[in-house]
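hey
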């Protein structure tokens, strides 16, 4: 893979303020108003495009007028890629607020549904940096080992026949990727490295899966700072606010159908160990029954 040349950043003067599975976050007193996100991956790693995708797609979403931190500059820290972007002060995710103050879950879920409708009404036709979810999904189905035979044929036909809608999708649509500035009460979408365009049901299926199935795992509860029951409550209120009371069972069933596709996509875009591949393979089959 060709290494892109970016300005080198010396971490002297930068203070680490956060760390996750994919990288670390730094602030600098001499550069107020911005943060530095540094990837764990080097230029030789196959996943090194992830941060560049986040920069490019987040910038495209920002240019479309959606509330998301402004991307400033791609940089390099040693062999690792980094992003300098706008800092949102005194912030918390909708997930963390919900976990710390469960009485606000229904209000936050309704607010997220309103913001999601705005997000999903955005046309991406003017932004070539945002790829097609339909094309990505067909690529994943062509390579998946989670399905075979008639089930695989049916899944491929289902995706081939769907509209390649220009609608903006988040790609990792959860309450953890919607943050609130407690100073201004303004909400921002973050972590847009998987942003695509397509049917909103892809985002909704992803969120349904996170709240109703993945939320049973302790590791996911730790990430979301919520219990499994709180996540289900959030989803139920969100679904009612997003879809309305009519045909809510049908809406949930369709979310479950797209959740199966989301599991296949997850196996395509992430490196999984054998245990994770086995678990996800069984999960996608159960979702398609």
């Amino acid at each position: 893979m060709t290494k892109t040349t970016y300005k080198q950043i010396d971490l002297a003067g930068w203070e680490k303020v956060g760390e996750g599975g994919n990288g670390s976050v730094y602030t600098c007193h001499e550069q107020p108003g911005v943060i530095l996100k540094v990837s764990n991956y080097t230029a030789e790693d196959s996943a090194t495009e992830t941060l560049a995708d986040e920069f490019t797609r987040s910038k495209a979403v920002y240019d479309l007028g959606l509330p998301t931190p402004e991307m400033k500059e791609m940089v390099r820290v040693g062999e690792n890629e980094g992003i300098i972007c706008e800092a949102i002060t005194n912030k918390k995710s909708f997930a963390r607020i919900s976990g710390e103050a469960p009485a606000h879950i229904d209000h936050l879920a309704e607010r997220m549904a309103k913001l999601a409708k705005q997000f999903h009404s955005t046309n991406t036709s003017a932004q070539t940096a945002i790829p097609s979810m339909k094309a990505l999904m067909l690529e994943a189905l062509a390579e998946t080992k989670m399905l075979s035979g008639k089930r695989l044929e049916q899944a491929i036909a289902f995706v081939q026949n769907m509209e390649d809608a220009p609608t903006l999708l988040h790609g990792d649509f959860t309450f953890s990727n919607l943050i609130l500035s407690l100073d201004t009460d303004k909400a921002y979408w973050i972590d847009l490295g998987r942003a695509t365009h397509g049917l909103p049901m892809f985002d909704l299926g992803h969120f349904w899966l996170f709240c109703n199935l993945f939320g049973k795992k302790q590791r996911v509860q730790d990430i979301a700072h919520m219990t499994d029951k709180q996540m289900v409550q959030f989803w139920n209120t969100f679904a009612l606010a997003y879809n309305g009371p009519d045909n809510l069972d049908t809406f949930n069933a369709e979310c479950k159908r797209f959740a199966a596709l989301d599991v296949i996509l997850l196996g395509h875009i992430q490196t999984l160990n054998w245990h994770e591949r086995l678990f996800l393979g069984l999960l996608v089959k159960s979702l398609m029954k």
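The longest helix spans residues 248-269. The chain has two domains: 7-86, 91-287.
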